[in-house]
Design a protein that fits this description.
alpha+beta; Nucleotide Exchange Factor Grpe, Chain A, domain 2; 3 domains; 3-stranded antiparallel beta sheet; 3-stranded mixed beta sheet; 6 helices; 6 strands; elongated
């Protein structure tokens, strides 16, 4: 190989010359080793940064999952208690006005009403809120239309509520079962 070939880019002559020179000059070999170690160090730093970012993401996800678990842990229990609330509301609605005024039933009615208020208070403390339905436009995210009814109201307006709907914080616990206005005729 000629000197020109050894110094020509794109040939192995440059590498061969470097190896020959490195054997004769230990400082060049040391320089190559330092460059290799610096490259490995940079790669290790990059991997460390990726690992730290992944740990941070896992931590955030775990914190969110724990917060959701705390916030929505009572969901199943709340659904079950809603049926008790429904029955209490039905019982109060079924008491005729003349019996409400009767001295024999006044205490019972007062007790049932107080129980209803206490149940509502407990629901509020635990993030349960009743969905407003009557007179609202049907929102499929909160209401479930059970029947269409002829009405003077604008089509799509809720004109009857068969069962109240509830939210637990920002999530739907149970949709309102409703009757919706349709065009007459």
């Amino acid at each position: 190989m000629t000197d020109t070939e050894a110094n020509t880019p794109g040939t192995n002559g440059g590498e061969d010359l470097r190896e020959e020179t490195a054997a004769a000059a230990p400082e060049l070999a040391e320089h190559d080793r330092v460059a290799e170690l610096e490259g490995q160090l940079a790669e290790a730093k990059q991997q460390t940064l990726y690992a730290q970012a992944e740990i941070q993401n896992v931590r955030r996800r775990a914190e969110k999952d724990a917060a959701d678990a705390r916030a929505y842990a009572a969901t199943s229990f709340a659904r079950d208690v809603l049926s008790v609330n429904d029955n209490l509301e039905r019982a109060l609605a079924a008491i005729p006005a003349e019996l409400r005024e009767d001295d024999k039933f006044k205490g019972l009615v007062t007790g049932l009403e107080a129980t209803g208020r206490e149940l509502t208070s407990v629901f509020q403390r635990h993030g349960l809120t009743k969905i407003e339905a009557m007179g609202q436009m049907l929102d499929p995210n909160r209401h479930q239309a059970m029947v269409e009814m002829p009405s003077d109201a604008e089509p799509g307006t809720i004109v009857q509520e068969m069962q109240s709907g509830w939210m637990i914080r920002d999530r739907l616990l149970r949709p309102s079962l409703v009757g919706v206005a349709k065009k007459p005729g």
